[in-house]
Amino acid sequence: MQKIKNIAVIAHVDHGKTTLVDQLLQQSGTYEAHQEVQERAMDSNEIEMERGITILSKNTAITYGDHKINIIDTPGHADFGGEVERVLKMVDGVLLLVDAQEGVMPQTKFVLKKAIGFGLIPVVVINKIDKDGSDPDRVMDEVFDLLVALDANEDQLEFPVLYAAARDGYAKHEMEDENKDMVPLFDAIIEHVPYPKGSPDNDTQAQVFTLDSDNFVGRIGITRIFNGKVKKGDEYLLVKADGSKSKSRISKLIGFKGLERIEIQEAEAGDIVAIAGFNDIDVGDSVCDKTNPVALDPMHVEEPTLSVIMSVNNGPLAGQEGKHVTSNKISERLEKEMETNIAMRMEPMGDASFKVSGRGELQIGILAENMRREGFEFMLARPEVVVKEENGVKMEPFEHLVVDVPEEFQGVAIEKLGKRKANMTQLTPMPDGTVRLEFEIPARGLIGFRNEFLTDTKGEGIMNHSYLEYRAYTGKVESRTPGALVSMDDGEAVAFSIFNLQARGIMFISAQEKVYSGMVIGESARPGDLDVNPLKGKALTNMRTSGTDEAVKLVKPRQITLESAMEWIEDDELIEITPLSVRIRKKSLDPVVRKRLARDKKNAK
Ligand SMILES: Nc1nc2c(ncn2[C@@H]2O[C@H](COP(=O)(O)OP(=O)(O)OP(=O)(O)O)[C@@H](O)[C@H]2O)c(=O)[nH]1
Ligand SMILES: [Mg+2]
């Protein structure tokens, strides 16, 4: 029987997980001599490469001595925490990376809490020790305190520690050690990560934790085999979370080796392999022996905390830039997403609209970004938190928030967060002259906060948050104060009018851009919306010198991105998203209707 170790690499965002996996792949000699490999090779999808972050967890396998090590690289951003949760059950150990300067951050807590809950003993890797500001001793203390706070058991508190610079390719047991490679880390994995339990002689039990597809064989389930064997050509029973069963033959069995996939004939308990042949295979399904099927527990991940209404674009420019624009197409696409993305939900709302729920704005934003790249066109409303009722009490999600700010911005950060119902739990002066402030805050208070925070701290503030728990609803939190500049006409924006409107606020559009009545073309300098005309040409009395229009000096408009728009909009606004454009508009395009709604709202107060 092959000797196998299964590990997941977990950490807060950017602490170096994917870079570490690069080095493990390289130094284990998994690549062929001539193979050309990109940096952060596991971040293989388009948006991951563009943004330099991991979004989907992915697995690879290396050989080290006589061991096979299956490694799952996970995302560190809080919005993709569901990815971490679903893989933790598939492994027998974790590498917990912590940045030697930043130390324990919100997502470090979230992922470590989950790992401790599964009874795993972390191999702690204090990473980036090459950084000037690094303080490995302090960070090591923080990790220990965190484990104590998480009620880790005695074995878990005995966790092994390594000090590493993943980018430079070394890890060591003590800071003083001189070695220049990853051998100490490989050895720590072999020594401290337990061998898989289960036996190849038992009846087959495997569970799917990721879906994939292959042009030739269709849907593929990447599975961890807990017991027995899986053989190509043999028949197995697929048991779904709802208990329904179906029999199929494995048409293709795929093993992992570095970045490659290889066809294999058979695999056994402890290993991670991809299985083809089951048409409706889903994440969480069990692949079982057909005569004695014993399904594994379905997978649980934390429920979504944020939702957004997605609807068919019905504005005046609808259908001009997108390929898939109908409610049917959008519905199909969302259903497909929910099959693989177990941390998200979708619910048809009637009126060609759907409620899409996830862990945060980035997670929903990435789905929307993927859809626009695929040719979809649609609208998004303002994100709302998912409110629940427990024993008659209205509950809302809370987040653990850490902000790092230069000392002079401490006051404004505390004041602004106070208005958003944040409760400060800790204030720590950091060695580099910044202050670390920790808060517990209703997730609602964070919607739209990032922009304001960056402005207030002149771009020097850093904020990080991750899900804490549901608590009693806290009442109204403050939101955007500036109003919108709303176009009152349809047509192409004229440079001369934009020039004049610049005095009223920050423009979102450039000259010649298409606008329509009810479209938001800028942020007003004052509270309250303002209807403006971006189409007004130059007054006739002006001298007509040729090229004067170009002479008009226009400030560069604020770039509206999908995510900045999600942060910015209010309840009465929508984002219009097409493969080419992101526009903001009023929900009701008719100015008369808007006036009436505004008056009703005022009267209601
Ligand atoms: N100075 C220094 N930088 C490092 C080290 N390891 C990684 N980095 C850098 O840290 C950044 C983030 O690295 P990634 O490997 O993408 O981090 P990650 O944890 O996979 O990030 P997510 O998957 O998005 O959570 C990159 O710019 C790396 O080059 C290190 O040992 N020292
Ligand atoms: Mg990564």
Number of H- or I-type helical stretches:
16
Bound small molecules, which ones? guanosine-5'-triphosphate, magnesium ion
Query: How is the main sheet built?
Result: 11 strands, mixed
Q: Any idea what the radius of gyration is?
A: 27 Å
Quaternary organisation of the protein chains: single chain
Outline? globular
Key words describing this protein structure:
globular, binds guanosine-5'-triphosphate, binds magnesium ion, 605 residues, eleven-stranded mixed sheet, 33% strand, alpha+beta, eight-stranded antiparallel sheet, 16 helices
Tell me about this structure:
- By secondary structure, this protein is of the alpha+beta class.
- Helix content is 24%, strand content 33%.
- The protein is built from 16 helices and 35 strands.
- The strands form six sheets. Strands 18, 19, 20, 21, 22, 28, 30, 32, 33, 34 and 35 form an eleven-stranded mixed beta sheet that branches. The protein has an eight-stranded antiparallel beta sheet with strand order 12-11-17-8-9-16-13-14, with no helix packed on it.
- Helix 3 packs parallel to helix 4 (106-117) and helix 9 (361-373) crosses helix 15 (562-568).
- The protein is globular.
- The model is unreliable at 540-547 (pLDDT under 50).
- Bound molecules: guanosine-5'-triphosphate and magnesium ion (MG).
- Magnesium ion binds next to helix 1.
